[in-house]
Amino acid sequence: MHEPVMGYNIYFDIAAIFISIAALIVLFFKRDLRKSENKWLGAVLINGLVCTVFDILSALSIDYPTRFSFEWAYTFTYLYFFIHITTLLFFFIFSGFYLGGEKQTLRKRTRLIMIPYMIGVALLIAQLPTDIIYKLDEKTHYYTTGIGYYFLIAISVFYIGASMLQLRSKVATKANKIVISVFAIVTVLSLGTKYLFSNVLIELFVQSLLLLMIVVSLEDSSKYYDQTRKVYNYYGFENDISVLFKRNNPLSSLIVIKNPEMAAVTTRYGKIVTAELLETMLDGIRQIAPDATIYDLENGKFVIAHVDFDANGIADEYKAIKARFEKEWDVNKHIINIKSNVVLINIPEDLHQEEQLIQFVEKYEGFETIVDVKRSVAVEKAILNAIINNGFFVVYQPLLNMSNGIYDRAEALVRLVDEELGYISPDEFVRVAEQNGVMLDLGDIVLNKVMDFISKNDLQLLGIKKININLSPIQCSSLGFSEHLAELIEFYGIDPSLLCFEVTETMAFHDANALTRLIDDLHAMNSSIALDDFGSGYSNIVNVFSVDYDEIKIDKSLLWNANEYNHGDAILKETINMIKEVKKEVVVEGVETNDQLKKLTELGCNYCQGFIFSKPIKEDEFISFLRRKLD
Fold first, then answer.
1. Which of 202, 229, 259, 435 is most buried as measured by Cβ atoms within 10 A of its Cβ?
2. How far apart are CA 477 and CA 26, in angstroms?
């Protein structure tokens, strides 16, 4: 019961208005309003602000019956109660998102939790003819509460308690749980204070302070969201994915876009055009997927995410995005064609571990289906198992010396047979090893196995003058690699002249200085170096012949195309003559027929390698092969 002569203390409510406005300003300018939790927090703040205004008007109209008509006093009080229970319902929904709830789960939970709210609405409707909640005297505005008032208090306490129950979430952080707990406990205490000191309007003041605390506690969106470009960054992606996989039943659909040629675009067109290209791509994504959450992971990588999704709709969206990224881009009067890889991933159907998804986004390039992704994950596992359990082995393919018909050289080739996957091609596992950062380990395994094999077998007595070993660009660029080679040669006690190391043109293109240093070091220790796969790509003739290679291995494609295409024979002939002209040894790979062998003999090749002589064979078979040829 309220005595009109007492009067209401509205100063706390006035302060609450300013606090609520300040909280709204901070939320609007400093937080990402696209996130569901921030939207609902904004709704709570706005409702609380409006509720406070009506609380003040109601108090004034009751205290000053001569200045306010009975109808206005009744309406202000009525709207205060209605907005009050709506605010607490909104807070329950907000707390669900704030504690990491999933939209589908929260939607179902809210449907059930609406029952008390509907009871409150029913009481408010019943208030009009019955005065079940409150009664105002028409002349004095004397205010009394009814039984319905206590039901509304109970509904408020119910929603606070329901918010507390959501603290069981496995996704919520400790800080988030503390914030919700403090809000719930202090709000209940303020309701008790209101019951004891009904003329002091302190409840909404306390609520506004707590909501401001929550706004401040929200993570600054600038860390993970670009307000200007309206896109999330890698930090936001990593954070959201972590939350997703902490749920018991993670459900999401991701479209991952990669542009592995973006660095080449920057080299050709410059940074400004590249930046404009990325923005054009983002605009294209937004046109096709306006309701999706978009992450820009830099270097031409984008992720388009849907948490609640229709499978058919996502499939159509995926097809549309894939089709768009297969077309050219018109950027600042430049027509840019760039190869893009677009992959659809449904979680947990396709990937069920956070690490798998992060690895795919960070490392794997060139995949167009989730099957390719799973295969690479499996291959990576096989590589790591082989490194730990000594699963790699080396085979040797003999090379024929065309001048004397003796097999006096061989190439060492690494192989992998996994218990689950079976035989894995070198092209596949080497690529994965380079992507996941274990290429140095794999290369070291090969070096040790080859040098151990040489040290245990007197290959020179069997006619062998050199063993060729492939080096990856990662090995060649590794600091101290030359010193490491020298240490291995000394440890195994082998003649360094027996070793010829093969590198590809990729090495010369990416780090010419490192290659030059390596060649100088190899020559200083009396080892040799060969350029592998010459002619397989866009060979730069000037660069190739300005490097001090000892031999050049012609890729099998030049040999196989010699009789397939016009001028193919002439290209092969001129390539061999050019290499001989600069005093390099010529090795041709992929020799498989007698006609090819005859052609290469006529062209004066130094060495030939291919299945016509022998496939790559294991150590004991290789020793037997050499002995048979000597006999």
1. 259
2. 50
Q: Which long-range contacts (CB under 8 A, 24 or more apart) does 69-74 make?
A: 70/136, 70/138, 70/139, 70/141, 73/136, 73/141, 74/136
Backbone region of residue 552 per phi and psi (left: phi > 0; alpha: psi in -120 to 50; beta: other values): beta
* Pair of tokens at residue 56: 């003040």
Please give the distance of CA 358 from its chain centroid, rounded to a whole number: 5
* Phi and psi angles of residue 478, each rounded to the nearest 5 degrees, phi first: -70, 135
Task: Label residues 316-334 b or e (16+ Cβ within 10 Å = b).
Answer: ebbeebbebbeeebebeee
Question: Concatenated DSSP letters for 356-404?
Answer: HHHHHHHT--S--SHHHHHHHHHHHHHHHHHHHHT-EEEEEEEEEETTT
Q: What is the pTM of this model?
A: 0.59
Average pLDDT, the chain: 86
The sign of the dihedral angle between the CA atoms of 466, 470, 474, 475 is: negative
For 308, which DSSP code?
S
Which pair of structure tokens corresponds to residue 357?
Answer: 């998804």
Q: Token match 């203390």: residue?
A: 9
Structure confidence by residue, pLDDT tens digits, 34-76:
677 888 899 999 999 999 999 999 999 988 888 889 999 999 9
Angle between helices 370-389 and 426-435 (to 10 degrees): 90
3-state secondary structure 57-101: HHHHHHHCCCCCCHHHHHHHHHHHHHHHHHHHHHHHHHHHHHCCC
Check pLDDT > 70 for residue 509.
no
Q: How far is CA 192 from the centre of its chain?
A: 49
**β 341-347/252-258 pair status:** antiparallel
Taking a C-beta distance cutoff of 8 angstroms, is the pair 274, 265 a contact?
Answer: yes
pLDDT above 50 for 205: yes
> What's the pLDDT band for 29 if we cut at 50, 70, 90?
confident
Exposed/middle/buried for 480, CB within 10 Å: 0-12, 13-18, 19+?
A: exposed
Token pair for 277:
């290209």
- 249 to each of 87, 177, 236, 345, how far by Cα in Å? 30, 21, 21, 16
Q: Contact 522/556 with Cβ under 8 angstroms? A: no
pLDDT digits (tens, 9 = 90+) for 374-410: 788 789 899 999 999 999 999 999 999 999 999 999 9
- For residue 484, which amino acid is it? H
Handedness of CA 236, 242, 247, 248 (dihedral sign): positive
